[in-house]
Amino acid sequence: MLRIENVSFGYNADTVLENIDLRIQRREHVALIGESGCGKSTLLKIIYGLMDLEQGQIFWEDEPVLGPAYNLVPGVPFMKYLSQDFDLMPFTTVSENISQYLSVFYPKELKERTQELLEMIELTDFADTKVKNLSGGQQQRVALARVLAQKPEILLLDEPFSHIDNFLKNGLRRNIFKYLKENGITCIVATHDYQDVLPFTDRVIVLKDKNVLARGNPMEIYNNPQSLYIASLFGEANSISIDILKSYANTKRKIIVYAHEFRVSENSGIPVNVKKSYPMGAYYLAMGDTDEGETLFFHAPKELQSGKKIFLNVSLETINQRLQHTPSL
Ligand SMILES: Nc1ncnc2c1ncn2[C@@H]1O[C@H](COP(=O)(O)OP(=O)(O)OP(=O)(O)O)[C@@H](O)[C@H]1O
């Protein structure tokens, strides 16, 4: 188990993280999410032992993870950290970068493992290319293979797919997270992309204002967001008063409604004056104002002209679920 106990940290005088307590089980995959600048990368660096803590301790099983004041070479051998700058050797080949830490005393194994990882990142054809001649996304894939080659017990990933196009991203994500599970590697991934979170992680930790705002099963957090901040990390969302949703409801209590949970109707529901709609491929993301002046974001199956009057509906099932499982906003 990884134990993060009462950790506080700041750069200079500014506290970035305060009294953070986390337990992460061996083999667990955890996503760290939160707005830009909330401290996700800092927390990963702390866990890896790159920072000296003002307060608190980190343990992997019973072994303390100590900062640079205690370690000549920062970092600990059983963990690997893939930062946003990839830390590659630019003047050597893709294969050499991947196999750098593999034992040359087992050449057959070295070759097989390098080949397996090249296939996983779909760069077999680039095995002998120098890394400096690769694109940003290709370099990120090499960096991923390089940390995996070292078979860490814990892997810390900071935005690991940020430079990779959608064409490759989905397959790569499936390959990597499957590999991590099969090899029993504990993983903490800091990400802005909820598609890294929902299909692949066992637990999500939401950071805000120096603290852990929420933690739990990703789909439960998604289905029952405790605030607009949390919902917005998963997509376009609205905080809306129930008496606007259902005119017979005698309550000003607000609930979260994701944009995709609205149904557009031509004749009944909440009247909305369309302001704009953006093509998103399978749907249009539209925004419009209610008679009360609230701006709502919603999905529409077709383009809606600005100024058009439409009506929005939310199922009773969604309303009841939010009423039961989320706090009054
Ligand atoms: N080396 C540094 N020196 C001073 N302040 C820093 C340093 N690195 C980060 N910070 C500050 O610490 C805060 C947290 O930064 P961090 O990079 O951990 O956030 P993040 O959640 O990973 O952001 P993003 O999602 O944009 O990558 C930010 O306010 C940032 O400006």
From TrEMBL:
Q: Which branch of life, at top level?
A: Bacteria
Q: What is this protein called?
A: ABC transporter ATP-binding protein
The family database entries (InterPro entries) matched by this protein are listed as: AAA+_ATPase, ABC_SmlMolc_Importer, ABC_transporter-like_ATP-bd, ABC_transporter-like_CS, P-loop_NTPase
Q: Which Gene3D superfamilies match?
A: P-loop containing nucleotide triphosphate hydrolases (3.40.50.300)
Domain ABC transporter as annotated: residue spans: 2-234
Keywords, comma-separated and alphabetical: ATP-binding, Nucleotide-binding, Transport
The reply on keyword Flavoprotein is no
Q: Name one GO molecular function term.
A: ATP hydrolysis activity
